[in-house]
Amino acid sequence: MTADSTLESRPVKRGDADGEETLEGLLGDAVLGRDDHENAPAVVIRPDEVQAVLATLRDEAGFDHCSCVTAQQYPDRFETIYHLKSYADPTREVSVVVPTPTREPKGESAAPVFETANWHEREAYDLIGTEYEAHPDLRRILLPETWQGHPLSLDYDAEQSQIVTLSEHANPIAGDEHDTTSETMFLNIGPHHPSTHGVLHVKAVLDGETVVDVDPDIGYIHRCEEQMCQESTYRHQIMPYPDRWDWVSSGLLNEWAYARTIEALADVDVPAYAQVIRTMGAELSRLASHFIAIGTYALDIVGEFCAAFQYAIRDRELVLDCLEALTGQRMMFNYFRVGGVAWDLPEPRGEFIANVRDVLDGFPAKLEEYHDLLVTNEIFQRRCVDTGVLEPTVAKDYGCTGPVARGSGIDYDLRRDDPYGYYDELEWDVVTEPDGDNFARLLVRLGEIEESAKIVDQCLDLLADWPEDDRTVQSNVPRTLKPEADAESYRAVEGAKGELGIYIRSDGTETPARFKIRSPCFSNLSALPEIARGEYVADLIAAIGSLDCIMGEVDR
């Protein structure tokens, strides 16, 4: 793609697009060319027209979800891609490509249009070196401020020494301990604190017990997952990495995000039988994730090792027993394969199905226990009802998805709205709650446990009756995958925490030229200041837990 690419007319919807305006007609002179991706049409625009273009697409075309921002460097230019969707219909997608010259990689910031771009652009600046004019806070987000260079840029010297100056360890409020015009106090929470649910540092400004402002400080366990994937082969070496992003429970969901992207990029089909197994395994992972989220949240609110936490760990272990029988692992599953899954259900087959059914049969009574312990608990209600409120418009502006968005009444679930696997053949409902508070996010996760159990039960019915001679677990995939050079695709699945997406650009070799991970926790956590301002310190802790963030996925 170059800036003088030939224009062509194409609607802004994946699939049927009758009545849709073309991108060129909508955006006019801001468009420099076209660079259509595998999943969506893409327009190349001038770097000084970013805000105008994105505002037009949001306000006039309904692309109100900036789901991901990808930055990368070519030999002759830098490039930022804004992946836009519609919350009402995520199959409506468009990519906005912003090329900038190598000598001055600077474009207009999208943060004034989509607040979620604030963190995404900081990450692009940190790792690639792209700068964004009018950005409200352009500084590193994953690496220390003293880091030398940008690790994913083409000219980065990985062997250079890194110098951490003494200022890195200075008192962050030196000279400001007493402000005669204010009664505020600066408080560090974390990074090593149980209530931060991982290595998260929260910089809080307090007025007495009231939170005036919050700045989440991330990056303490950044592990270069994107760079490692870029140095690994599509066919065999990348698949073990996704388990390690959200390492708590969402391994198969993470694996599916990568599988969906590479299968679309390399035009690989998945047998229907393998799709059923994938769907069952993914929902078992969702159950395990939600149980640990509910249990640890009970600790945040009630304190100590309360009964709800012990019950949640008990039930999560039962789900992990099922996953271990299926995959051979309890944590890093590495069960999905490009084109299917590693192997069929364990033998004896009937015993595995019966064991999983036994676990599911116990859920209705156990969910009643959770409702008795938490939902109807007066103390829990006083801590969670009407605290940590996230308005729907604010949630969309920050790119929130998953239970965080659905707890604010946003009816958005990729399993239904952009179907994959076997979801569109099954009976289940998307759970939403209208209030947008800490309590609503808990109710969504409890409701999703019930719906995931329904999905798993239907999958077991299908697997039990599937003809033996048609149980194909993998399609015929070439030993070496080399997607077409310059092919690009962004695809996503509905992870336990929300939209988990992968962008891949191929260069014709067996390794990606660019591999970008769109973490739902990253976007959800960026909304913490909006949730916490005006609340008490105890409510800030409740808000952090209600987001259910795993820092390994945030930092990647």
Automatic annotation (TrEMBL):
Annotated segments matching region Disordered: 1-22
GO CC field: plasma membrane
Residue ranges occupied by any NADH:ubiquinone oxidoreductase 30kDa subunit domain in the UniProt entry: 43-160
Record GO terms (molecular function): NAD binding; NADH dehydrogenase (ubiquinone) activity; oxidoreductase activity, acting on NAD(P)H; quinone binding
Membrane topology: Peripheral membrane protein
Major location category of this protein: membrane
PROSITE patterns associated with the record: COMPLEX1_30K
Keywords: Cell membrane, Membrane, Multifunctional enzyme, NAD, Transport
Subcellular location: Cell membrane
Family stated for the protein in its record: In the C-terminal section; belongs to the complex I 49 kDa subunit family.
Substrates-to-products reaction catalysed: a quinone + NADH + 5 H(+)(in) = a quinol + NAD(+) + 4 H(+)(out)
Domain NADH-quinone oxidoreductase subunit D: 307-556
Self-association state and partner proteins as the record states: NDH-1 is composed of 13 different subunits. Subunits NuoB, CD, E, F, and G constitute the peripheral sector of the complex.
Protein name, per record: NADH-quinone oxidoreductase subunit D
DNA-binding listed as a keyword: no
Pfam families: Complex1_30kDa (PF00329), Complex1_49kDa (PF00346)
Organism of derivation: Natrinema thermotolerans
